[in-house]
From TrEMBL:
Similarity comment: family membership: Belongs to the NAPRTase family.
Nicotinate/nicotinamide phosphoribosyltransferase domain ranges (all copies): 169-348
Name the UniProt record assigns to this protein: Nicotinate phosphoribosyltransferase
Protein source organism: Hymenobacter crusticola
Functional note: Catalyzes the first step in the biosynthesis of NAD from nicotinic acid, the ATP-dependent synthesis of beta-nicotinate D-ribonucleotide from nicotinate and 5-phospho-D-ribose 1-phosphate.
């Protein structure tokens, strides 16, 4: 089946969402006649965010949409034609602009499905194709995948802390602009939020929308009871009263008084919301008041600068909170506002024959030295589907019979692979520029996240000093990489 075009649902045709240097390099390749040299790039991060043990891959749907729409419009070309260098001459010559106007995306793209748990150094996306194209897509792929992976991971952690409680994403007002809000709402739902307050995300992506009311609602009436009564008239079966505008426990009593009147009319108060003060103490007191008054099913919603560590702490304190409203700290990934994903060249086709040159970027720190090859990620699992270790290997080289994986940061850490159950994480998404994968629905990707996280050992899921999940280079790849580093690095006499 041919997947339906995404037609701009996520990322409309915005091919100038790029850094200028992608275009200057493209021009340079074109002038040198190198534009069609076949190249392979990998997109990966070097450290999971939030000092955590894993990340949740997200953003592929946006990326696929953007790639599908890649192409320079007449307006784009006109703008580029007007760019000048420091001497006032045009930056790009006409022949190149004509080339760009006709450029069609023809690369192969393999990627790890959204919602999969991923680790440091694993290519989330592999792009193979003409050098000029594979290079041009760097910035947009990083923009889309870094942010959404970050937010999906943050939400997965919040979900972990909240257990089976409801999690509502309330972040739009604190998001990094409209798109920051929209893509954060999508990534948050994917990562485990149950609903969003963001109505556009509801319309666009089918995410359930939910909410309560603001303090201003209460302040617009003579008193709290009147405000609650009026809200209940509008939403007799879906009212959650914000009780902390004046005095929280008084507010709970007023909510109960209105809930009694609602019950007489055949309606139940859905919940109350606490938005300030000691949420552990107040939720316990509120629960006791509601239970005593005969409203054990009325839920307690809490909000106020929450994140996974506060939720964990509140639970340890015996808070009686059923629903967590999380905004600022989720959509801004407050404690780590960017994922440092990178996009590195890993292979170039020989100019003379059909072989490959595998390439490496060397750094003072081994952690920042890239991995050469055309990489695939193989995840070894137990019979029951528990993830045991991941192996990066070069698909352009044959694999030996007996596999050993080697820690890319410490070659003395080696593990023979015993497990025979595995899956290959990178899947074909584009072939010769055509989208060939039927992308899973947001709902399917969301379900995948919970399956994937359950496949991890608790030592990797914990927040504090998590165990490092084993990710190794296949022995042959490790040897090749070491030799390549030795060959490229100047050996300066001591
Ligand atoms: N029991 C608790 N343990 C730890 N942190 C808590 C507890 N209860 C609330 N918090 C958190 O402490 C912070 C308190 O915020 P802050 O000092 O601004 O007071 P506030 O309750 O929001 O006051 P305001 O009335 O001004 O809204 C919030 O992030 C809240 O989530
Ligand atoms: O706290 P967050 O996780 O960002 O969740 C969203 C917050 O937004 C709303 O109030 P807002 O912050 O606008 O005002 P307030 O803090 O004065 O209630 C809401 O009452 C939450 O507190
Ligand atoms: O519906 C809510 O309670 C809500 C929505 C956005 C931000 N804070 C709260
Ligand atoms: Mg606030």
């Amino acid at each position: 089946m041919n997947p339906a075009p995404l037609s701009g649902l996520y990322a409309p045709s915005l091919s100038l969402v790029t850094d200028l240097y992608q275009l200057t390099m493209a021009y340079g390749y074109w002038k040198k006649g190198l534009q069609d040299r076949e190249a392979v790039f990998h997109l990966y991060f070097r450290k999971p965010p939030f000092s955590g043990g894993y990340a949740v891959c997200a953003g592929l749907a946006y990326a696929a949409d953007w790639l599908q729409n890649l192409g320079f419009s007449e307006d784009d070309i006109t703008y580029l034609a007007g760019l000048k260098g420091s001497k006032g001459t045009p930056m790009f010559e006409q022949g190149f602009l004509d080339y760009l106007r006709d450029l069609k995306f023809t690369c192969d793209v393999d990627a790890i499905a959204e919602g999969t748990v991923v680790f440091a150094n694993e290519p989330l996306v592999r792009v193979q194709g003409p050098l000029i194209q594979a290079q041009l897509v760097e910035t947009a792929l990083l923009t889309l995948i870094n942010f959404q992976t970050l937010i999906a991971t943050k939400t997965a952690r919040i979900r972990e802390a909240a257990g089976s409680d409801q999690v509502l994403e309330f972040g739009l007002r604190r998001a990094q602009g409209f798109d920051g809000g929209l893509s954060a709402s999508r990534a948050a739902y994917l990562g485990g939020a149950d609903a969003t307050s963001n109505v556009l995300a509801g319309q666009r992506f089918g995410i359930p929308v939910k909410g309560t009311h603001a303090h201003s609602w209460v302040m617009s009436f003579e008193d709290e009871e009147e405000a609650f009564t009026a809200y209940a008239e509008a939403f007799p079966d879906d009212s959650v009263f914000l009780v902390d505008t004046y005095d929280t426990l008084e507010g709970v009593r007023h909510a109960i008084a209105v809930a009694r009147q609602m019950r007489e009319r055949g309606h139940e108060l859905a919940g109350i919301r606490l938005d300030s003060g000691d949420l552990a103490y107040l939720s316990r007191e509120a629960r006791a008041l509601l239970d005593e008054a005969g409203f054990p099913k009325t839920r307690i919603v809490a909000s106020n600068d929450l994140d996974e560590s506060l939720i964990t702490s509140l639970k340890l304190q015996g808070a009686r909170i059923d629903t967590w409203g999380v905004g600022t700290k989720l959509v801004t990934a407050y404690d780590q506002p960017a994922l440092g994903g990178v996009y590195k060249l890993a292979a170039l086709r020989h100019a003379d024959d059909n072989g490959w040159d595998f390439t490496v970027k060397i750094s003072e720190q081994l952690a920042k030295t890239s991995i050469p090859g055309i990489l695939q990620v193989r995840r070894f699992e137990t019979e029951k589907g528990q993830a045991r270790a991941d192996m990066l290997y070069n698909i352009a080289e044959p694999l030996p019979e007996n596999l050993t994986i080697i820690d890319p940061l410490d070659p003395t850490r080696r593990r023979p692979v015993r497990s025979t159950t595995f899956r290959e994480l990178l899947e074909p998404v584009f072939r010769q520029g055509k989208l060939i994968m039927t992308l899973p629905s947001l709902q399917e990707s969301r379900e995948r996240v919970q399956r994937e996280i359950n496949s991890l050992d608790p030592s990797i899921r914990r927040f504090l000093n998590p165990h490092t999940y084993p990710v190794g280079l296949e022995e042959g790849l490790n040897t090749f990489r070491t030799n390549l580093i030795l060959e490229k690095r100047p050996q300066r006499p001591a």
